[in-house]
Amino acid sequence: MKWPPGAIQFADRARIHVFLASSDLHLEYKLKISRSRRSTWPRNRCNWPVPWSTDVEFSPEDATRSDRDFLVEMVQVAVQAGATTINMPDTVGYSTPQDYGRMFAEVRERIPAIDQQGVILSSHCHDDLGLAVANSLAAIQSGARQVECTINGIGERAGNAALEEIAGSTLRPRRRVRRLHRHLA
Fold first, then answer.
1. Contact, 148 vs 162, CB < 8 A?
2. What does the pLDDT read at residue 141?
3. How far apart are CA 66 and CA 21, in angstroms?
4. pLDDT of amino acid 32
5. Is the dihedral of CA 103, 105, 110, 111 positive or negative?
6. 26: number of CA atoms within 13 Å, CB side?
7. What is the arrangement of strands in the sheet containing 56-61, beginning at the earlier edge strand?
8. pTM of the entire structure?
9. 3 state SS of 150
10. H or E element in which residue 19 lies
């Protein structure tokens, strides 16, 4: 394949989104590799697209079921390699709002470079337990500045967080309490 791909070449805001499994379940059963082999991969994957885009989003797939220390290590490596957005997905719709929000807060606290470098934290939630919107709002309250969601929550399995519900939750007067700014793109 010739690079840069056409979609990047003509994009007004070119972003490359890189995914790497982070939970032991995904590492062992999906990729059949060990943590030690995987922990350095974000550096290579986040450096790879830089010639075509300096806007690189990194997602440790299955973040909510990942060992927290390993998740922090992967995110730290990605930030050091130049990732501008870190998306921490609830890949299987497994988390609760309290746990999901705590994950965002802990990653921000343990990796000061996220705030220092203006790295955007992003949420991507599946609705298997019916908590995708609540989890997304918990992520926002814990520092996420981007939410990946869908119209009417349409998505694989039980769906994703619903755009209209998240947008509705951030309308005035609630917005004053949370100090949110909406930008739908």
1. no
2. 94
3. 9
4. 76
5. positive
6. 18
7. 16-21, 56-61, 85-90, 120-125, 146-148
8. 0.86
9. strand
10. strand 16-21
The C-alpha atoms of residue 17 and residue 121 are separated, in whole angstroms, by: 13
105 Cβ neighbours under 8 A, 6+ residues apart: 142, 143
Question: 20-45 pLDDT, tens per residue?
Answer: 888 888 777 787 777 776 656 656 66
- d(CA 44, CA 81) in angstroms, rounded, equals 8
Amino acid at 27: L
Judged against a pLDDT cut of 80, whether residue 125 lies above it is answered with: yes
**89: its two tokens:** 């997905």
d(CA 4, CA 159): 32
Tell me the C-alpha to C-alpha distance, in Å, between residue 76 and each of 26, 30, 69, 105: 20, 23, 10, 14
**What's the pLDDT band for 124 if we cut at 50, 70, 90?**
very high
Higher-pLDDT residue of 1 and 55 is 55
* Residue-level pLDDT at 114: 98
Token digits of residue 9: 């070449």
Amino acid at the residue 11: A
Residue 4: asked if its preceding bond is cis (omega within 30°), the reply is: yes
Helix (H, G, I), strand (E, B) or coil at 139: helix
Question: Which tokens in the block code for residue 112?
Answer: 């000061």
Contact 157, 93 (CB under 8 A): yes
